[in-house]
Write a structure and sequence with these properties.
alpha+beta, 4 domains, Thrombin, subunit H, single chain, 14 helices, 477 residues, Pdz3 Domain
């Protein structure tokens, strides 16, 4: 990739003559810059890259039937008015078809496509239009809501479709040239160019694993699911979000890195489920104050404050108080970065984790394993006459914690669903809450809960943990 970068920058040197002189370049630097020497240099173009990549980028059209309130004049609801007009008794709700659009990338020649989950979410029908205008229906192979990715399979598609190979997002540098290919506003396939303007952005709340590539290539509604392509024709990201006040491009777009996309595609295609590596440790980002207290020369890394007994992190020798600064040689600046690095590494391998312990840098070898299903979930729907009726609960285990993107807490009961019309929803209980106690009695497993909810009581006190806070819901006397 470095060779391509140098080649393109040399080819674009003529464009930088004026800029170099304005920035005060030296005489020696100016002497290295020259005007185009041939017709081919004058006609520099991204066209070869586009010809290579564009055929593997598709347009995706979805539709779904929704229930919408019928638009009628309020006068038709007045019985007096209805006496003078022949107004039929139309239902207040009618079915309407909602259409949406997006983009996708063919990653296997037999019709396997990756796109964003939000492009196809809730769709009753999915149509995919290829670069050469061929059109196919598509089925959803699987989705991964935590990364906002989905994998589709074309129906009755040939086995020799054009594909885009994945590149290495880890090798990107700020300033690298990239192309964004997609279907903005439904106008048809469009190519825009720009540079990588930042890496490892984690402020966008569109996915749990936040380590986005930021680009100034124009990305607009409809580009979601399309390809972010390097100058060697490899896809290094899937465009997923924009920063905008009005929904239009303002020069900041975000893409999911290729390493994470590959891991999700492999899981959904091979087994229909994404299984990520589990570390079994938690912590907090090292800011300036913590860095100073630990004697570190700069902020960065994750200060470990919890390790699950028997987890890969404990077996590797990680200790509370260690600062994780890198995984496989890649810097870790915060907890989101650590989760991203671990999530992109394949299960069944090992990884080198670099930590700082008492001022000394150490490398630990960590076995990458799937999170265990222990204790068994025993998901249960609560019934009866009590405030939690209609709520589903389960024993929190590492696998369930990973699926929900929450911290694993041993001996905990988590709320997995809350009936929309139930009393628990009205008092504020939410999915993801941890039930800590019922009427003062602590809860550590699903089996503890039903006996505490039986019988008539003058009042209830239910304590739940939400994040770092414990909330008490008092009902009745």
């Amino acid at each position: 990739m470095e060779g391509h970068r140098i080649g393109w920058m040399a080819a674009l040197a003529a464009v930088g003559i004026a800029a170099g002189m304005m920035l005060g370049g030296t005489a020696a630097q100016a002497a290295d810059v020259r005007v185009p020497q041939s017709q081919s240099e004058v006609r520099l173009s991204f066209a070869p890259v586009v010809k290579m990549a564009a055929p593997a980028v598709v347009n995706i059209y979805t539709s779904r039937v929704v229930q919408a309130r019928r638009r009628m004049s309020p006068l038709f609801n007045d019985p007096f008015f209805r006496r003078f007009f022949d107004v039929p008794n139309l239902p207040q709700v009618e079915e309407q078809v909602q259409n949406a659009l997006g983009s996708g990338v063919i990653v296997q020649a037999n019709g396997i496509i990756v796109t964003n989950n939000h492009v196809i979410e809730g769709a009753d029908e999915i149509r995919v239009v290829l670069h050469d205008r061929r059109e196919y229906a598509a089925d959803v192979l699987g989705v991964d809501e935590r990364t906002d990715l989905a994998v589709l399979r074309l129906r009755d598609a040939p086995e020799d479709l054009p594909v885009l190979a994945f590149g290495r997002a880890d090798e990107l540098e700020v300033g690298d040239l990239v192309l964004a290919i997609g279907n903005p506003f439904g106008v048809g396939q469009t190519v825009t160019s720009g540079i990588v303007s930042a890496l490892a952005r984690n402020t966008m709340g569109v996915a749990d694993f936040r380590s986005f590539i930021q680009t100034d290539a124009a990305v607009n509604p409809g580009n979601s699911g399309g390809a972010l392509v390097t100058m060697d024709g490899a896809v290094v990201g899937i465009n997923t979000a924009i920063y905008s006040r009005d929904g239009a491009n303002v020069g900041i777009g975000f893409a999911i890195p290729a390493e994470l996309v590959q891991a999700v595609v492999a899981g959904l295609v091979d087994g229909g489920k994404v299984v990520r590596s589990w570390l079994g440790a938690n912590g907090q980002a090292v800011g300036p104050d913590i860095a100073a207290s630990l004697g570190m020369d700069r902020p960065g890394g994750v200060l470990v404050n919890h390790i699950t007994a028997g987890a890969p992190a404990e077996r590797a020798g990680l200790k509370v108080g260690d600062v994780v600064v890198a995984v496989e040689g890649r810097d870790v600046v915060d907890l989101q970065g650590l989760r991203y690095r671990v999530a992109t590494l394949p299960v069944g391998t090992t990884a080198t984790m670099t930590v700082v312990r008492n001022g000394v840098v150490k490398d630990l070898e960590v076995a990458l394993e799937p999170p265990p299903e222990l204790p068994p979930r025993k998901e249960t729907e609560l019934s009866g006459r009590h405030p939690l009726a209609g709520t589903r609960i389960a024993n929190l285990n590492p696998a369930l914690a990973e699926e929900r993107g929450t911290v694993y807490l041993p001996d905990s009961v988590i709320v997995t669903a809350v009936a929309r019309e139930g009393y628990a929803a009205r008092i504020g209980v939410q999915p993801g809450d941890i039930i800590r106690a019922v009427n003062g009695t602590e809860v550590s497993s699903v089996a503890d809960v039903p006996p505490l909810l039986t019988g008539q009581r003058p009042g209830w006190l239910i304590a739940v943990q939400r994040g770092d806070k414990v909330l008490n819901f008092r009902i009745g006397a």
